[in-house]
Amino acid sequence: MAIPFSRPLALSQGDPAGIGPDITLMAWLRRRELGLPPFFLIGDPDVLALRARQLNLAVSIRETDEASKAASIFADALPVMTIPVGIEVVAGEPHAATAKGTIASIEKAVSLVIDGEALAVVTNPIAKAVLYEAGFRFPGHTEFLADLAARAIGRPVTPVMMLSGPKLRAIPVTIHIPVRDVPQALTGELITETCRIAHEDLRQRFGIEAPRLAVAGLNPHAGEGGAIGTEDEDVIRPAIEGLRDEGIDAIGPLPADTMFHDEARARYDVAICMYHDQALIPAKALGFDDSVNVTLGLPFVRTSPDHGTAFGIAGKGLAREHSLVAALKLAAQLGRSAESRR
Ligand SMILES: NC(=O)C1=CN([C@@H]2O[C@H](COP(=O)(O)OP(=O)(O)OC[C@H]3O[C@@H](n4cnc5c(N)ncnc54)[C@H](O)[C@@H]3O)[C@@H](O)[C@H]2O)C=CC1
Ligand SMILES: NCC(=O)COP(=O)(O)O
C-alpha cells in the first residue's frame, strides 16, 4: 500500500490505564483498510505490548527515536517513540505515578510538530483528575497546548475547543470551568475573540469561504427579552452585533434548546455555545463515534477523539477506535492543508 504522506502524525499516549492503548492498536491494525495516514505513538512500548496480548491483537511494535523513520516503519509495525511509564500499568486502574510520562508525551508531540518533524498532534485521552493529583495545573489538553504554543511563539494564544462531526460543529466559549463561574467568565471580549478564531480557522483550515456562526444564548429561551436572565441581551447580543459589523456572519443569541435539531443545523456551519456541556452534549449525542475534538487558534494542528479514558472498558476489547480514526484523518487533512498554504 502506498501511503501518500511524508511526515507522520505524533500521537500522545494519554492515560496508559485508559483505552488509549486499545484504540491505538486497533487503529493501526486497520491502517490499510482505512487508508490511514502514518502515525507514531509517543509512550511506553511495554504498555502497548501487554495490552495487545490482553486484547489478543497481533501488532508488531517497533521503537524509533526519529519521527522521520516512523512513516516507513508504519506499514509493517506500530512505531513507538519511547517514554517509559515508570510503573506496571493495569488496564482500568489509573495511577498518579504515570502522570509525568503522560505529560512528557504531550510535550514531545508538540515539540516535534513545532520543529517540523511531525505533521500534527493527535492526543489520546487523559484523565484530568489523575494529572491534577500529580500537580498538573492546566484544566485539560486545550489549555496546556495553548501554553506550550505560547511559549514556543512568544505571545499569548487563545485556544478554542471545537467538536467537529459530520452532523455538527460546536464550540464552547468557556471550557473547563465550574458552571457557577460561567456567567462571570462570559465576557463580550471572550465571545468576540472565540468567534473571530472560529471564523478564521473555518475559512483557512476547513475551507469554508464564509462561515455561518450560530451563537447560543446562555439562559432558557435566550433570556426571554431579559426576563429570564440578562447576559443574553447585555453581553452576548452586543458581541454578535460587533462581529456582524466586522463582516462575520454571526446570528443569535439563539435559544439553545431549539438550535440543534436537523432543520436548525442546516442554517449554520458552527454552533458557538456558552459553556462546555451546551456544546458537548449535542456533539456527542449526534456523533459520539465520529466526532473529533480539534483545537483552533493554535499555531499547529491538534485533534483528539471526542471521548475520555473509559477506564471501565480498558483492556476488555469493548473500546471502539472510530473517533480516534476520525481524529487521525482530520489531523492529516488539516496538516496537509496548512502545508499547502505555506
Ligand atoms: N480528550 C480527553 O483527554 C478527554 C478526557 N476525558 C477524561 O476521561 C475521563 C473519563 O470521562 P467520562 O466522562 O467517563 O467519559 P468517557 O468518554 O471516558 O466515557 C463515557 C462512556 O462512554 C464509553 N466510551 C468512551 N469511549 C468509548 C469508546 N471509544 N468505545 C466504546 N465506548 C466508549 C465509556 O465506556 C463510558 O461508558 C475523565 O477523567 C475525563 O477528564 C474526557 C473527555 C475527553
Ligand atoms: N470534554 C472534553 C474534554 O475534556 C477534552 O478536553 P481536552 O483535554 O482536549 O482539553
TrEMBL record:
<keyword id="KW-0520">NAD</keyword>
<dbReference type="GO" id="GO:0050897">
    <property type="term" value="F:cobalt ion binding"/>
</dbReference>
<keyword id="KW-0521">NADP</keyword>
<keyword id="KW-0170">Cobalt</keyword>
<comment type="pathway">
    <text>Cofactor biosynthesis; pyridoxine 5'-phosphate biosynthesis; pyridoxine 5'-phosphate from D-erythrose 4-phosphate: step 4/5.</text>
</comment>
<dbReference type="GO" id="GO:0051287">
    <property type="term" value="F:NAD binding"/>
</dbReference>
<dbReference type="GO" id="GO:0008615">
    <property type="term" value="P:pyridoxine biosynthetic process"/>
</dbReference>
<keyword id="KW-0479">Metal-binding</keyword>
<dbReference type="InterPro" id="IPR037510">
    <property type="entry name" value="PdxA"/>
</dbReference>
<feature type="binding site">
    <location>
        <position position="276"/>
    </location>
    <ligand>
        <name>a divalent metal cation</name>
    </ligand>
</feature>
<dbReference type="GO" id="GO:0005737">
    <property type="term" value="C:cytoplasm"/>
</dbReference>
<keyword id="KW-0664">Pyridoxine biosynthesis</keyword>
<dbReference type="GO" id="GO:0008270">
    <property type="term" value="F:zinc ion binding"/>
</dbReference>
<keyword id="KW-0862">Zinc</keyword>
<feature type="binding site">
    <location>
        <position position="176"/>
    </location>
    <ligand>
        <name>a divalent metal cation</name>
    </ligand>
</feature>
<comment type="similarity">
    <text>Belongs to the PdxA family.</text>
</comment>
<comment type="function">
    <text>Catalyzes the NAD(P)-dependent oxidation of 4-(phosphooxy)-L-threonine (HTP) into 2-amino-3-oxo-4-(phosphooxy)butyric acid which spontaneously decarboxylates to form 3-amino-2-oxopropyl phosphate (AHAP).</text>
</comment>
<feature type="binding site">
    <location>
        <position position="284"/>
    </location>
    <ligand>
        <name>substrate</name>
    </ligand>
</feature>
<dbReference type="GO" id="GO:0000287">
    <property type="term" value="F:magnesium ion binding"/>
</dbReference>
<dbReference type="Pfam" id="PF04166">
    <property type="entry name" value="PdxA"/>
</dbReference>
<feature type="binding site">
    <location>
        <position position="302"/>
    </location>
    <ligand>
        <name>substrate</name>
    </ligand>
</feature>
<dbReference type="GO" id="GO:0050570">
    <property type="term" value="F:4-hydroxythreonine-4-phosphate dehydrogenase activity"/>
</dbReference>
<keyword id="KW-0560">Oxidoreductase</keyword>
<feature type="binding site">
    <location>
        <position position="141"/>
    </location>
    <ligand>
        <name>substrate</name>
    </ligand>
</feature>
<keyword id="KW-0963">Cytoplasm</keyword>
<dbReference type="InterPro" id="IPR005255">
    <property type="entry name" value="PdxA_fam"/>
</dbReference>
<keyword id="KW-0460">Magnesium</keyword>
<feature type="binding site">
    <location>
        <position position="293"/>
    </location>
    <ligand>
        <name>substrate</name>
    </ligand>
</feature>
<feature type="binding site">
    <location>
        <position position="221"/>
    </location>
    <ligand>
        <name>a divalent metal cation</name>
    </ligand>
</feature>
<dbReference type="GO" id="GO:0042823">
    <property type="term" value="P:pyridoxal phosphate biosynthetic process"/>
</dbReference>
<protein>
    <recommendedName>
        <fullName>4-hydroxythreonine-4-phosphate dehydrogenase</fullName>
        <ecNumber>1.1.1.262</ecNumber>
    </recommendedName>
</protein>
<comment type="subunit">
    <text>Homodimer.</text>
</comment>
<feature type="binding site">
    <location>
        <position position="142"/>
    </location>
    <ligand>
        <name>substrate</name>
    </ligand>
</feature>
